[in-house]
Request: fold
Amino acid sequence: MKKEKIQLNRMFYSRRHECYGMCIAKADFMAYMLFVKKEFPSCWYHCIELEDTCYDERGKTWAKL
Reply:
């Protein structure tokens, strides 16, 4: 995702971790994420790793949030 689309206090999906997280800070092309699953660390992630889409298990498709 482009850095311009990252917004604070918004949920984003991480394909790498396959879970949702909330962006609580951003700096240039990095976003500080708090993930729903506790096994993934809260830290700075590159914006390109985040998606504003979600995976629908039932339809097996990616949908725009």
About this structure: The longest strand covers residues 19-27. The chain is about 0% helix and 50% strand. Residues 3-64 form one domain.
